[in-house]
Amino acid sequence: MPLNSSQTGAAIRALDSFAIELPSWGFANTGTRFGKFIQLSAATTTAEKIADAAAVHRFTGCCPSVAVHVLWDFPGGVKDVPAVMETARKEGVRIGAINPNVFQDQCYKYGSFGNPDPEVRKAALQHILDSVGIQKAAGSRDLSLWFADGISYPGSGSIRARRQWFIDGLKTVHAALSGDQRMLVEYKPFEPAFYATDIADWGMSYIYSKHAGPRAKVLVDTGHHYQAQNIEQIVAWLLAEDMLGGFHFNDRRYADDDLTLGCIDPYQVFRIFHEICYFEWETGKRADIAYMVDQSHNLKNKIEETIQTANNAQELFVKAAIVDHARLRDEQMKCNLVDAEECLREAFFADVRPVIAEWRKSKGLPVDPLDAFRQSGYTARAEKDRAERNRGAAASYA
Ligand code: PSV
Ligand code: MN
Question: What is the pTM of this model?
Answer without folding.
Answer: 0.97
